[in-house]
UniProtKB/TrEMBL annotation:
InterPro entries: SAM-dependent_MTases_sf. The lineage of its organism: Eukaryota, Sar, Stramenopiles, Ochrophyta, Bacillariophyta. SUPFAM superfamilies: S-adenosyl-L-methionine-dependent methyltransferases. It comes from Cyclotella cryptica. It comes from the Eukaryota. This is Catechol O-methyltransferase. Residues 65-88 are annotated as: Disordered.
């Protein structure tokens, strides 16, 4: 007999059937068309939008380079921000201590240290299975079923619920992220950011959120709502959007628990863009299962769309396209941007957002795979901005997701002033 909590019915997700292989070949989504090594070739970096402009995190199939039998990963370099949000901003000091946040990050680090690469080497880095995304979704649902079964039994055996409301709200998303990690380490490599990079992105996002709160401190103290906008370019199966949403919610909950009244007035939304309707469906299922769907807005981008226009069309509008009624929380900029889509379009899309003033002083930008994919043009652009005093930039080197010996890194750039 399976015991489920009363709220589980609202999270029920019907897994779509696996598409016919022939139909899948006709879909707009193709790993081979969405991935490229490097961004320096003029033919790859253009100002025109293309079908691959806001792709999922996809790569062309190639022989696996990692070794599944290795039990000890190579040493990984981290900056001081990789495991916890530092207590300073680019403009001075934060008014909010991050001790509790750091402790939460360290607990996640300890949990993920127990994850070991166990998959068949033939399913290693840059190998793909046709129906892997649907298989992953089934794997996640089974893990969540086990969690709900356990919670249901504990609630029946105690007069008081075994988990708090806060834990109950955040736990499904955490279980999904861990389930995705276990699938990619134990069965099939996939192109999510992975647990190691997720910790680095999480800490950088916390810096951005705390900086946002301090910049709007007076308004928040006076009870005026302010909206924090997070954009994830490259949805894939929704892992990175869940990482961002979980980090924001847990940080705000920590601040509220410590009686920081400003946190209650902070609203937020994660906009995530994807070009494949099939992957959008998988991601939406992940968001519903993780109870984060009301905070995440998946956007299906069509051929010929320009990223800045897509983002602008969704800012200050609800999910039905209606203009937001409350002008007090109107926003015209991106507070945190994660680039993890077609690698040759990082620089094109970044400069597009820059020129339309969606990125301005106070915005934070994080870009995945800048080392492994040799994104020299993107890194040179950021280095030039840093020399001009526009941004502060740093690189955190670590392994490619779900691999032991492939070097990669994440670029991090808080903006000091507008271009």
């Amino acid at each position: 007999m399976l015991f489920l909590p009363p709220s589980n019915g609202n999270s029920l997700v019907i897994v779509p059937p696996k598409p016919d292989a022939f139909l899948l070949q006709q879909d707009e989504f193709s790993y081979c068309n969405l991935y490229s090594y490097g961004d320096s070739e003029p033919s790859l970096v253009t100002s025109e939008s293309s079908l691959s402009a806001y792709s999922c995190n996809a790569v062309a199939a190639s022989p696996s380079s990692d070794v599944a039998t290795q039990s000890s990963p190579l040493p990984t370099k981290h900056s001081s921000a990789s495991l916890g949000a530092p207590n300073v901003s680019h403009s001075g000091v934060f008014g909010t201590s991050t001790d509790a946040v750091d402790k939460n990050n360290n607990n996640e680090q300890h949990t993920h240290n127990s994850l070991i690469l166990q998959r068949d080497p033939r399913n290693g880095a840059f190998t793909f299975q046709v129906h892997a995304e649907y298989d992953l979704l089934l794997h996640v649902q089974k893990d969540l079923d086990r969690y709900h079964h356990k919670v249901g039994r504990e609630e029946l055996s105690t007069t008081v619920g075994a988990t708090s409301d806060v834990t109950e709200d955040l736990e499904p998303a955490r279980i999904i992220m861990k389930s995705v990690d276990s699938y990619c380490l134990g069965k099939q490599w996939m192109y999510h950011i992975g647990y190691e990079k997720a910790l680095a992105v999480r800490s950088f996002l916390q810096c951005s959120l705390l900086d946002f709160i301090n910049r709007h401190s007076e308004e928040l103290i006076n009870g005026h709502a302010k909206k924090f906008i997070c954009v994830d370019v490259g949805t894939y199966c929704g892992y990175s959007a869940l990482v961002l949403c979980h980090a924001i919610r847990s940080t705000l909950m920590e601040l509220e628990a410590r009686k920081d009244s400003r946190a209650k007035c902070v609203e937020f939304e994660v906009l995530t863009t994807e070009i494949s309707s099939k992957l959008i469906n998988v991601a939406q299922s992940m968001f519903r299962l993780g109870k984060m769907d009301k905070f995440i807005r998946p956007i299906l981008v069509k051929e010929g769309d320009v990223l800045s226009e897509v983002i602008k069309s969704h800012l200050n509008r609800d999910r039905d396209g209606n203009v937001a009624m409350d002008n007090n929380i109107a926003t015209t900029q991106i507070d945190f941007l994660l680039l993890d889509h077609a690698k040759n379009l990082y620089l094109t899309d970044l400069t597009d957002l820059e020129s339309h003033h969606l990125l301005t002083a106070g915005s934070y930008v994080s870009a995945d795979n800048v080392v492994f994919n040799r994104l020299d043009s993107y890194r040179h652009h950021m280095a030039t901005l840093a020399r001009d005093g526009i941004v502060e930039t740093r690189l955190e080197e670590m392994n490619l997701e779900y691999s032991n010996n492939l070097k990669d890194g994440i670029g991090k750039c808080p903006l000091c002033r507008r271009w």
